[in-house]
From TrEMBL, chains A, B:
Pathway: Amino-acid biosynthesis; L-histidine biosynthesis; L-histidine from 5-phospho-alpha-D-ribose 1-diphosphate: step 7/9
Keywords (A to Z) from UniProt: Amino-acid biosynthesis, Aminotransferase, Histidine biosynthesis, Pyridoxal phosphate, Transferase
Quaternary structure annotation from Swiss-Prot or TrEMBL: Homodimer.
Alphabetized Gene3D superfamilies for the sequence: Aspartate Aminotransferase, domain 1, Type I PLP-dependent aspartate aminotransferase-like (Major domain)
InterPro entries found in the cross-reference section: Aminotransferase_I/II_large, HisP_aminotrans, HistidinolP_aminotransfase, PyrdxlP-dep_Trfase, PyrdxlP-dep_Trfase_major, PyrdxlP-dep_Trfase_small
Catalytic reaction(s) noted: L-histidinol phosphate + 2-oxoglutarate = 3-(imidazol-4-yl)-2-oxopropyl phosphate + L-glutamate
Protein name as it appears in the record: Histidinol-phosphate aminotransferase
Organism: Leptospira fainei serovar Hurstbridge str. BUT 6
MF-aspect GO terms: histidinol-phosphate transaminase activity; pyridoxal phosphate binding
Cofactor(s) the protein needs: pyridoxal 5'-phosphate
Length: 365, 365
């Protein structure tokens, strides 16, 4: 069988290790596992969302309303845009897929930061496009602009705050950058961690309604996987001009978000107390990791997210050794080796989880 | 913004009308609506599945195990294949997407029956491929073979039993056809309705393990949306040679099936009593629609599915008129006008639903 030649060299995304793996490989009971690997919400999900889903199980057999009207209305109200500016995705991941497939053909160029979410390049390469990255670890808008002028990409990805590093760009810097980009270049601003960034520094906040009204070539993406605690439900969204949304809709498979996922998301948007309480806890707990790293002289990236990335070049253990040691104990972190970094990414957990992990890190590093 | 030119002419899938629409447009209370439009399971979902999901709500925040190991093991045991022969999809729809994107490039040819599931051509056209269809309504393998020889397609779709017509091919006829097809041509056998077909005529049953061992170029697709009553949960699968599955995996987005969906599916596979009882009811109820159509002299297609398609060329109402009249009363059927047929597709419901609908059809037609 001859498959499309782009498949020959496509990389495959490596996900954080699931709890199931630790259970089956190391025989650790699931309730003993501490998973701080995938930037999930350590407080779980709002009890109101759980109640809503529990009351809605009779909807499982029914295809969702394929207009997703109620979800789009809830999102448009939450972000001050029109429902026609919104498209729902099976995770914000699916919005990246729509973005790449709507503008990229073989040989086209995509621009991104050196270290960033790896699905951007995977989706781009599926279209036969060539991905150009800065050589910086944190976002470098000057270098991004130089590369833009040189390569004239059809698509630019900006992840702010950035996964897997944790840095955030200031809104005004992003706007100055966007001012210099042609309206014919699609720009994805991935705001998966925007709520965390905003609570640490308001200047990093990029409101979707504002950015799409100033820049008709921007699509802002968001997710319910982080502050709303719905990572397992696969639901995200894109906010953009009607022109972009219409194009993405042509690539959207029918019923792309499950019935229970959309109900959970609508309910999650209402429970702002749950979100605020998590954001406060995250901001309270983050300094404990910073103090730890400082005490050991380990460099780390200032984080505007719910994780912290600590570099281990000068540590007693490499990121692989630390990852594997803790994995055997039932603590799952994310080794950033596949991103070319000798660094470990730690999701900020609940205080009880952080205490256990910090004790182990103090002993091991 | 310049989008990829294939987007200019792409059709958009038209889904069956959701209950929500009838509620908001006609003010009918949701529990009074009879939806027999989308071939969902009229008995809902197994109570064991509901209990399993209700017990698993704490998993909503966690990304699924991206290996989907438990789900693939359950499917491989159910169908007598290896886990490496299985890929899960966000509905079997996503498997069609993997199939088209793995083999099709601009200008390539895809072959399908004249009337068939409309997403095949939508996904194919997204790849810039040209879709050639037979001029038959029911599957015509002789014509399909003639077109195969003339156009040498890279991909063939066979939907058996076929949506939206209801006809089924006999296994031996399919195998004789496949014997004449090059191993370099990918063939999708969409078995979404296979369980219904098998209960009506065993000769229409195409076991996935058998077909993929005889034909390494075949991918068999199945869904949890029909007999298992999980249409809203978006979960389907492909079964094929390891070579095909590996290629599809390169196009699979991470976490493509939600946490609760995979748990529901695993549980649904266990409750064979629920499935068997639905299959018996479906076979008991189908003749009531056939007798009705016979009594009115309305032609219909012999159905091997959970729906019946009745032609209305000689009826008092066109399919549009009948559809709209019943919609206002809170009964949702599927008008096949968008398929170029003056015909109505009726999902076989529970006996109480069928009685109400048949009374109205007797009065109206």
């Amino acid at each position: 069988m001859r498959f499309q030649s782009v498949l020959d060299t496509l990389p495959i995304y490596e996900a954080g290790k699931p709890i199931e793996l630790v259970v089956r490989e190391y025989g650790i009971s699931p309730d003993k596992v501490i998973k701080l690997a995938s930037n999930e919400n350590p407080f779980g999900v709002s009890s109101k969302v759980k109640e809503k889903v529990a009351r809605s199980l009779d909807k499982m057999p029914l295809y969702p309303d394929d207009t997703y009207r109620e979800l789009k209305e809830a999102l448009s109200q939450a972000y001050g845009v029109q429902p026609s500016n919104v498209i729902q995705g099976n995770g914000s991941d699916q919005i990246f897929d729509f973005a790449t497939r709507s503008v990229l053909g073989p040989g086209d160029c995509v621009l991104q930061n050196g270290k960033t979410f790896s699905m951007y390049s995977i989706y781009s390469e599926q279209c036969g496009a060539k991905v150009v990255s800065t050589d910086s670890i944190e976002h470098d808008l000057n270098q991004l602009l130089d590369l833009y002028k040189r390569y004239r990409p059809k698509l630019i990805f900006i992840c702010t705050p950035c996964n897997p590093i944790g840095d955030a760009l200031k809104k005004n810097d992003v706007y100055s950058f966007l001012d210099k980009i042609s309206n014919e270049t699609l720009v994805v601003i991935d705001g998966a961690y925007m709520d965390f960034g905003r609570t640490r520094d308001r200047e990093t906040d990029i409101p979707p309604a504002e950015v799409i009204s100033k820049y008709p070539n921007v699509v802002y993406t968001g997710t319910f996987s982080k502050v709303h605690g719905l990572g397992g439900m696969r639901i995200g969204y894109g906010i953009a001009s009607e022109e972009i949304i219409r194009a993405f809709y042509k690539l959207r498979p029918p019923f792309n978000v499950s019935q229970l996922s959309q109900l959970a998301a609508i309910e999650a948007l209402k429970d702002t107390d749950f979100v605020d309480s998590y954001l406060r806890s995250n901001l309270d707990e983050l300094p404990n990791y910073e103090s730890f790293a400082d005490s050991k002289g380990l460099p780390y990236f200032k984080s505007y997210t719910n994780f912290i990335t600590i570099r281990l070049e000068d540590a007693k253990l490499s990121s692989r050794e630390l990852f594997e040691t803790l994995l055997r104990e039932g603590i799952i972190l994310r080794n950033l080796k596949s991103y070319g970094l000798n660094a470990i990414r730690i999701t900020i957990g609940r205080s009880d989880q952080n205490r256990i992990l910090l004790d182990r890190l103090k002993a091991l590093l």
